[in-house]
Amino acid sequence: MGRRYFILDVFTNQALAGNPLAVVLDGEGLSDARMQAIAREFNLSETVFVLPPETPTHSAKLRIFTPAKELPFAGHPTVGTAILLARERFGEIEEDQNAMVVLEEAVGKVRCGVVLKPGAAGFAEFDVPKLARPADPLGDRDVIAAALGLEPSEIGFENHRPTAYEAGVPFAFVPVADLSTLSRAAPRAGRQWDEGFGGLGSAYVYCRQTTSSESTFSARMFSPAMGISEDPATGAAVAAFAGVVRHFDKPTDGTHYLRIEQGVDMARPSMIDLEIDIHAGNLKAVRIGGQAVVIASGELFL
Q1: Are residues 61 and 105 in the same domain?
Q2: Among residues 41, 60, 80, 259, which one has the fewest Cβ atoms lying within 10 Å of its Cβ?
Q3: Which residue among 46, 105, 230, 261 is the active-site one?
Q4: Which distant-in-sequence residues (6+ apart) come within 8 Å of 87 by Cβ?
Q5: Residue ranges of the alpha helices (H) in 215-263?
Q6: pLDDT tens digits along 80-106
């Protein structure tokens, strides 16, 4: 029996940019081991398997795998799958079409608003199901710098210091001086990495300087433990990054719009929209948005 799949480029409006994603539309009957093996075969940052929802009013249940492990939540699989399911629902459209897609992920229910336009990339924005909270503490600055092949003096800017947050998936957040430093960051696998980031395994390195005037931060994400040497766009990290922004930048009450550029050093530029609602100085709600385009489709004979 053939299982239909699609390849999308996510957090971009053009093919061969952003973060590639595989979505297998019929995941029923596949064991966990089989799903993991298929994800290794695609060898993309994430592969999604679509299953019937447990609640009939929801759109689908998702299983999300990196080449090395299953994730409870991830941003670009959520955006890409929501857009794909809306396209499957409406087919070819002649005018703008809005849709609500509700996805069941291990982290919980994820509501996604989708906008489709004829002949253009789709757009999806979802409510982050878990607000960012502090994760396990990191090693000291010297160890973190060594794990990234940088000098200790290059770690940090303004009042930003290395910290860890999670919004379903934990990340170490490492601020660096500028784009030049960001470009030179490279993970040192083994003992140095483990000492710097412990059980977190994933480092999101960022700076205030950007290549685009529309961006607020530039970032790179390294996750050797997930089988991802570098990720072109990491929505789950941006969801947790909301906690970093609240902690260090202390935005005023209200809604704040930010854009994070990622993947530039990989020649896969990505743009991730982040909306943060602040009330009484605390995170009230967080939303992640981005575009996606379908670039390929086929069948798995498994």
Answers
A1: yes
A2: 41
A3: 46
A4: 116, 122, 294
A5: 235-249
A6: 999 999 999 999 999 999 999 999 999
